[in-house]
Amino acid sequence: MLQWVKRHLVSILCIIGVLAPIIGMLLIDIYYYSTVFGWIIGFCCFVTSYFIVSKRPDDDEKTSSPSASET
After folding, report:
1. Radius of gyration of the chain, Cα coordinates, nearest whole angstrom
2. Residue range 15-24, pLDDT digits in tens
3. In a domain? residue 49
4. DSSP string for residues in the chain
5. CA-to-CA distance for 19 and 67, rounded, in angstroms?
């Protein structure tokens, strides 16, 4: 289960990022500022997923063989 979450963490965060403002708008009758919190949570999810993608090593770099200029 943990391996599945690690592989799909970015897509999960993006889905939460899209759904958070919508859920916040639906909850505006319960709490007035829920839309603002929804947008903030959505933005934080997208920023976190961006950091994960930018820090993750590329698969091409690990599997590629050295080129003729590197040897």
Report:
1. 19
2. 999 999 999 9
3. yes
4. -HHHHHHHHHHHHHHHHHHHHHHHHHTTTT-TTHHHHHHHHHHHHHHHHHHHHHHSPPHHHHHPPPPTTT-
5. 44
pTM summary value: 0.70
What is the distance between the alpha carbons of residues 55 and 52, in angstroms, rounded to a whole number? Answer: 5
Q: What is the pLDDT of residues 33-60, one digit of tens each?
A: 999 999 999 999 999 999 988 887 776 5
**Quick check: is 4 in a domain?**
no
Whether 18 is in a domain gets the answer yes
Q: How many domains does the chain have?
A: 1
Q: Is residue 14 part of a domain?
A: yes
Residue 58's CB is within 10 A of a number of other CB atoms, namely: 8
Q: Which residues of 27-48 are buried (b: 16+ CB within 10 A; e: fewer)?
A: eeeeeeebbeebeebbeebbeb
